[in-house]
Specification:
The complex is a heterodimer of chains A (113) and B (114).
Chain A lengths: L2 E4 L4 E4 L4 E3 L1 E4 L5 E7 L5 E7 L5 E4 L2 E4 L9 E3 L8 E8 L8 E2 L3 E6 L1
Parallel strand pairs in A: 2-12
Antiparallel strand pairs in A: 1-4, 3-9, 5-6, 5-10, 7-8, 8-9, 10-11, 10-12
Chain B lengths: L3 E4 L2 E4 L5 E7 L5 E7 L5 E9 L2 E4 L6 E3 L9 E3 L8 E11 L2 E6 L3 E5 L1
Parallel strand pairs in B: 2-11
Antiparallel strand pairs in B: 1-3, 3-8, 4-5, 4-9, 5-6, 7-8, 9-10, 9-11
Classes of the chains: A mainly beta (113), B mainly beta (114).
């Protein structure tokens, strides 16, 4: 079945540091890929998405590129802020699964001033 | 728009009790889902619905029932609570946006079963 694997966390960075959170996936078809963010005490919010190979999703300074050859969708940001502290989830949905999402385990990011 | 709303925010149950977690959305989305979030395991799909009157099981459906009598509401019923159901529950609604579905999540219900 489908699966998503994220880098082990938690991740602690200083403000203005470069961020990478790794995400790899296993899927039978051609999935759409997502990054969701969860701020403390809140539900998940869509951060960015990519629907086909080589697509780059971007939002709020975050980027991720859909790499079919390495089955990866790594999240990057050039300069993190304290306000980026949150849990980040990588997820996929298959063409045949419609609205159903398969999530990674989540990565806790803490950014210190 | 209120988006996706969930009630209650917190709940404590004793083993064997039953309860219903409420979920409502005002965006006229066809698709709705229930997930549970457990530490180190991400979110796992419990049940989902592709429209009023149509529901199906997700990855971890045992011990839970759902129904979808209206587009707006998608309640989740715990039939006989067990400590293994201690978790944070999220309801989501979604619509098709081109090749992918955009999911909108509620704020969650934190459930403790003692």
């Amino acid at each position: 079945g489908d699966s998503v694997t994220q880098m082990e966390g938690p991740v602690t960075l200083s403000e203005e540091a470069f961020l990478t959170i790794n995400c790899t996936y296993t899927a039978t078809g051609y999935p759409s890929l997502f990054w969701y963010v969860q701020y403390p005490g809140e539900g998940l919010q869509l951060l960015l998405k990519a629907t086909k190979a080589d697509d780059k999703g971007s939002n709020k300074g975050f980027e991720a590129t859909y790499r079919k050859e390495t089955t990866s969708f790594h999240l990057e940001k050039g300069s993190v802020q304290v306000s980026d502290s949150a849990v980040y989830f990588c997820a996929l949905s298959e063409e045949t699964s419609g609205s159903r999402l398969t999530f990674g385990e989540g990565t806790q990011l803490t950014v210190n001033p | 728009n209120a988006g996706v709303t969930q009630t209650p925010k917190f709940q404590v149950l004793k083993t064997g009790q039953s309860m219903t977690l409420q979920c409502a959305q005002d965006m006229n989305h066809e698709y709705m889902s229930w997930y549970r979030q457990d530490p180190g395991m991400g979110l796992r799909l419990i049940h989902y619905s592709v429209g009023a009157g149509i529901t199906d099981q997700g990855e971890v459906p045992n011990g839970y029932n759902v129904s979808r009598s209206t587009t707006e509401d998608f309640p989740l019923r715990l039939l006989s609570a067990a400590p293994s159901q201690t978790s944070v529950y999220f309801c989501a609604s979604s619509y098709s946006s081109g090749a992918a579905f955009e999911q909108y999540f509620g704020p969650g219900t934190r459930l403790t079963v003692t």
